[in-house]
Write a structure and sequence with these properties.
Blueprint (H helix, E strand, L loop, with lengths): L12 E2 L2 E2 L1 H16 L9 E2 L10 E2 L1 H11 L28 H8 L20 H14 L10 H15 L3 H14 L10 H8 L7 E4 L26 E3 L5 E3 L2 E4 L3 H8 L2 H4 L4 H4 L6 E2 L6 H9 L1 H4 L5 E7 L15 E7 L14 E6 L9 H4 L1 H12 L2 E5 L4 E5 L1 E7 L2 H8 L19 E2 L6 E2 L36 H8 L9 H10 L22 E2 L2 H16 L10 H10 L23 H12 L15 E2 L4 E2 L6 H14 L5 H17 L4 E2 H19 L9 H4 L4 H8 L8 H4 L1
Parallel strand pairs: 10-15, 15-18
Antiparallel strand pairs: 1-2, 3-4, 5-8, 6-7, 8-12, 9-21, 10-11, 11-12, 13-14, 16-17, 19-20
Helix pairs in contact: 1-2, 3-4, 5-7, 18-21, 21-22, 22-23, 23-25
Protein name: Transposase-associated domain-containing protein
Pfam family, one: Transposase_21
Length: 738
């Protein structure tokens, strides 16, 4: 149908009354929807009013009422969401030369579309499309006659350099003016940074600034948008400056994820890669990508309608705190929430260009249990992307499709694990797999929780370690390992718990109950969350780093960091039968442990590390981490620890430790090396799952109970996560922290 025939859709009111022509147009729309039931949801149809924007389904009468009150969404002359195809056949349609380029950059949102028949019915493009058209025109214009650089390329490189080196505006203005004088006079180079920014204006993606309660109780958003005080704690929304001006006390920045996902399909060289997971042939029983994992396949099996469209996006969600001012600034911690798509091939997946900042939670303090309050806009958008989707233009096929998205899992360090999941990550119940069945205990003298002798239960029945009553806890009998709860079982545990949005008082009551849970995570609002096999990942990066730090500091007997102390020996005498290591001379003298190096051995090790040379990019300069005076290693970066743990540790200690100690350390080193392989086979995962409990038991026979905190326990669960989630490099914090 011609656009001119539907002009009445936007001629609604005659004074206070609705025009009969508009009423007839709504009736025509309703009848058209009834003729195309396949584009609806049962008896419901998409509502094209400006508020619903074809994202929500309602019954016919509700849609009619919405249209009477609000009218149609702007420029919706083709009812594509209700089943109507675009205009005339392609052979007879005259197109605007900039139309495809506009859709390339913006996707096919109704407010961004330029009609196929724009030459027939001339219309000015809307503001956002016009900005992009101007930008694309600038992309074609050379900086000056004979130049290989376009105006757009020069502007983008200037903006990039300013951000990368944190240059001041005046500095950029000076260089821009200098370059303007240096190149020929007939150039299109701006003399200031502001003129440069105007060239890039059309590429901007939307963001929203949302005022928040200073204590993190609520967002001044939606129903609470007009409040001046927090309705939960009474804190003021605004504060006065020295000049008496009111400014918001705390502001969160929200970056909608939908336009960023649409932009992926509007970029020619990325669009085709977004379906790599569906096109690329797979190797049976080999994990090289998240799409090989059981979690991905289970989601596809559970929701076949979602899996039927390979362009639908699977996302990973990551959060972590950082100090923007560094260690020399004031103590301030803000929390970004990042989403990354897993549809891309390994060479592009979890790389910097495809990590999308969705929330920037302000400081100065850790949000802790209130993180869910800040995540409300993101969760609402993720629910909409799952239930309704977003109309998107695929530049590779030149067709529109309904884009949907799902979060596969979250990625975080262990404290943030608790903030996202709602499970307390401290105390005896810290393990989110063992939960209430944990056999951890408080050390009487050390005053810490120990996971000593918590791993024999994972050994097969009949294993000789199970009957050993001297090397482990005295006279302790081990049962079977705890059952890993399914999503439905976990939902039954949390469905009646209070949420962070219910206020601090409700959470305080739950915390005093000491059930392990301290809230119901907002992620449970996602319709598919309880159907996922893996909701939260244990971060292998931090586990391996903490394991290495504990191991090397104990072996090198670093004062203040070793787990082999006088109190540890007292606890060892209480829980174990190791007479040769108990304190002597009235609890003052500590016999030398077989796992500890003497001063001469420590010096040999430090000199060996100091003289190491690595290929470029393999590791940093480890010689800076060596202190020959105190004979210890310090200040290793997060990347250096795995290099040492997986590659150097067995070589470094082979001539310094007794054989049985060296073998146990070598086995845990090999475990992390195999687990972190970029491609891992199912047979290797089964082998790791079978061996890790025995390896930890061997370490328990050597080291004191104080050695085994939660980070020394978590490796027993990592093979299971590898089997469910695939290779660890897509599920750990390295790329996000970098």
């Amino acid at each position: 149908m011609k656009r001119t025939e539907r002009k009445r859709m936007y001629d609604r009111l005659d004074g206070r009354n609705i025009k009969p022509e508009f009423l007839n147009g709504v009736t025509e729309f309703i009848e058209f929807c009834k003729e195309h039931p396949s584009c609806g949801d049962g008896d419901k149809i998409r509502c094209p009013c400006p508020l619903c924007d074809n994202r929500r389904f309602y019954d016919v009468e509700t849609v009619r009422l919405h249209l009477y009150k609000k009218g149609f969404v702007r420029n919706y002359y083709e009812w594509v969401c209700q089943g109507e195809s675009f205009g005339e056949p392609a052979s007879r349609v005259q197109t605007n030369p900039y139309r495809d380029m506009v859709i390339d950059a913006l996707g096919n949102n109704q407010e961004h579309m330029l009609n196929e028949e724009v030459d027939v019915v001339e219309e000015e493009p809307n503001g956002e499309a016009k900005k992009l058209i101007d930008l694309l025109k600038a992309a074609e214009d050379p900086l000056y006659e004979g130049s290989n650089l376009s105006v757009l390329e020069m502007a983008s490189r200037i903006a990039s350099l300013k951000c990368e080196f944190n240059l001041q505006h005046r500095c950029v203005d000076g260089f821009a003016s200098l370059m303007n004088d240096a190149i020929p006079n007939n150039n299109q180079m701006g003399r200031t940074f502001n003129s440069t920014k105007k060239v890039l204006h059309g590429l901007e993606l939307p963001h929203e600034r949302i005022h928040t309660c200073p204590k993190g109780c609520l967002l001044f958003w939606k129903a609470d948008a007009q409040l001046d005080k927090c309705r939960l704690c009474g804190s003021d929304r605004y504060r006065k400056t020295s000049r008496g001006k009111l400014i918001p006390a705390k502001v969160m920045i929200y970056f909608p994820i939908t336009p960023r996902l649409q932009r992926l399909y509007a970029t020619k060289n990325v669009c085709e890669d977004m379906t790599w997971h569906a096109k690329n042939p797979r190797v049976q029983n080999t994990f090289a990508h998240p799409s090989d994992s059981e979690a991905w396949k289970h989601l596809d099996t559970t929701f076949p309608d979602f899996a039927s469209e390979p362009r639908n996006v699977r996302l990973g969600l990551c959060t972590d705190g950082f100090a923007p001012h560094g260690k020399f600034g004031s103590q301030y911690s803000c929390w970004p929430v990042i989403l990354t798509p897993y549809n891309l091939p390994p060479s592009m997946c979890v790389k910097k260009p495809f990590m999308f900042l969705s929330l920037l939670v302000p400081g100065p303090k850790n949000p802790k249990g209130h993180l869910d309050v800040y995540m409300q806009p993101l969760i609402e958008e993720l629910k909409r992307l799952w239930e309704v989707g977003a109309m998107t233009y695929d530049i590779s096929s030149k067709k529109n499709f309904n884009l949907r998205a799902a979060v596969l899992w979250t990625i975080s360090d262990f404290p943030a694990y608790g903030m996202l999941s709602g499970w307390s990550t401290a105390g005896k119940k810290a393990c989110p797999y063992c939960m209430d069945k944990s056999k951890a205990f408080w050390l009487e003298h050390g005053g810490k929780v120990s996971w000593f002798d918590c791993h024999r239960q994972f050994l097969p029945q009949g294993h000789p370690f199970r009957k050993n009553k001297t090397a482990f806890c005295k006279n302790k009998v081990n049962g079977m390992g705890p059952h890993i709860m399914s999503g439905e079982e976990l939902w039954q545990c949390v469905k009646d718990l209070p949420k962070a949005t219910d206020g601090p008082e409700a959470l305080k009551k739950l915390k005093t109950a000491k059930k392990g849970w301290f809230k119901q995570s907002i992620l449970w609002e996602l319709p598919y969350w309880k159907d996922l096999l893996l909701r939260h990942n244990l971060d292998v990066m931090h586990i391996e780093k903490n394991f290495f730090d504990q191991l090397i500091n104990t072996v090198m007997d670093v004062k203040g960091s070793t787990s082999d102390t006088a109190n540890a020996r007292k606890d060892m005498a209480k829980y174990c039968k190791r007479r040769q290591l108990e304190l002597e001379n009235g609890s003052k003298t500590m016999p030398k442990a077989p796992f500890a190096l003497d001063k001469a051995q420590k010096k040999v090790l430090c000199e060996w590390v100091r003289d190491l040379k690595f290929p470029d990019g393999f590791a940093s300069n480890l010689s800076r981490c060596v202190n020959l005076q105190s004979c210890k290693l310090h200040g290793m970066k997060s990347h250096d620890c795995p290099v040492f743990m997986e590659r150097l540790l067995p070589v470094a200690l082979v001539e310094l430790l007794p054989l049985h100690v060296w073998k146990a350390i070598t086995e845990i080193s090999q475990f992390f090396r195999d687990l972190c392989a970029p491609t891992i086979k199912m047979s290797d995962i089964d082998r790791l799952d079978k061996n890790i409990a025995e390896i930890l038991c061997k370490l328990e026979k050597i080291f004191p109970p104080a050695f085994f905190n939660s980070m020394e326990h978590f490796p027993v669960h990592l093979p299971h996560e590898a089997k469910v989630g695939g290779p660890v490099q897509y599920r750990w914090m390295y790329p996000f922290e970098r």
